[in-house]
C-alpha cells in the first residue's frame, strides 16, 4: 500500500519532466509576452527582440532555467503575472524558440 503514493509521485514527476510548461496556453503566452516583454528585449537586442532567445551565448539552457528567468523578469518588471501566466509564457517561448523536452 505504501508503494502506491510513491509510484504516483514518480509518474507525475515523469509527466511534468516530459512536457515542460504543461497546461500552458501558447496563444495566451504570446499575448502576455508581446505586451510585457517585447519592448524591453527590443531595447536590449534591437530588431524584434527575439535575439535574446536566439543568440549563441543565450543564458537559458533548460526548461527549469527558462521558468526561473520568466519568474525573475516578472518580478523585476512588475508585470503582475500569476503563476499560470508565467506557465503560458513559458509554453509560448518553449514552443517558439527553445524546444525543451
TrEMBL record:
Record has Metal-binding as a keyword: yes
Superkingdom of origin: Bacteria
Coiled coil feature spans: none
Matching PROSITE patterns: CYTC (PS51007)
Annotated ranges, domain Cytochrome c: 24-97
Signal peptide region: 1-18
Entry keyword Glycosyltransferase: no
Keywords, alphabetical: Heme, Iron, Metal-binding, Signal
Name of the protein in question: Cytochrome c domain-containing protein
Native source organism of the sequence: Thiobacter aerophilum
